[in-house]
Amino acid sequence: MVRVPNEIPGGPLTAVRNPLAYIAARWTPDPRTVRRAALVALVMAVVIVVTGGAVRLTGSGLGCPTWPKCTADSLATTREMGWHGVIEFGNRLLTYVLCAAVGWAIIAARSTKPFRRQLTRIGWLQFWIVMGNAVLGGIVVLVGLNPYTVAAHFLLSSALIAAATVMWHRTGEGDAAPRPLAAPPLRRLTWALVVVSALLIAVGTVVTGAGPHAGDSSEVPRMPVDWESVTRAHGVLAWLTVLLTVALWVGLKLFDSPRVTLARTRDLFLVLLAQGVIGYVQYFLDLPELLVGLHMLGSALVWIFTLRVLLAMRERPATEPDAVPASSAEPVPA
Fold it and tell me: What's the predicted TM-score (pTM) here?
C-alpha cells in the first residue's frame, strides 16, 4: 500500500460528484489486489452462467413469474411458490453479488497509480454488460422464456466473460503497445480459432433453444429447427475447434514459439477434450440435467481458455501507462 494525501481538490463536494476519483485519491491498491479483484469478477461471471443454467434445468425459469418483482405483490419469493421460486429468486440475488464483484474490480482499477485508463474502461464495459443482461433477463421472464431471448441472454453472458477475461489478463501486463510473440500465420490461425469457438457457442444456444430443457414445466415455445441437425452442426464445429487447436499447437512447435503460447494452447486442448467427453455422454444418455449443467460450465471454460490463447499471442511491456499528471488540479473522471 502507498500513502497518498488525504485531501483532494473540491473536498466533500468532489466526493459526492465523483466518488471513484475521491477513493482513488486516498487509496492505492497493491497490484495483486487489482488482479484478484479482476479474477473475482471473472469467477462470478462464470458462476452466474452456471446458476442460470440451473434455473433452466430445474424448470424454475418462471419461478418468479414477473420482473423486477418476484410476484405482483412481493419483491421476494413466497412460500407458495415453492423451490422453483427460491431457485429463480436466488439467481436474481446472485446478480447483486456479480455487480459487487464488478464494482470492486472497477474501484481497484481506477485507484491504480499511475492511472490505467484502458483497464478502467474494461471494468466499466463489464458493468454495462451486467446492466444490459439484467434488463434482458427481465424481458426473458416477461415474454415467457422465449428461446430467442434466452439465447441472447446467454450470449451476452459470454460477452461478459470475454471482457472479464481480458481485464484479468491486462492486470498482469503493462499498457505499452502490444508486441507479437508468434508468427503472422499463427496469429491468423488463432483468430480463426476464436471465430469458430464463438460460432460453436452461438450454435450451442440454438441446440438449447430447440432442445427439451425449456426452463419451465409449462408449455414453452421452442426454436422451429430440427434439433438433430443443429446438434450435428454443433458437433462439427466442436471438432473443427479441436483441429484448429491441434494445428496451432503444431505450428507453435515448428516456429519455436514462447513457452507460454504452447502452454495456453495445450490447456485449451485439454479443456476441449473434457468438454467433448461430456457432450457425447450427455447426448447418448438423453441429456441428463447434471451433465447438461456441466456442459454449460465447460462452454464458459472453453471460451475463457480460447481467449487466453489469443492474449498469449502478444505481450505488453510494463512501460508508461496512461498516467495522471501530478500537477493536475482536476481529478480524472471516473
Answer: 0.88
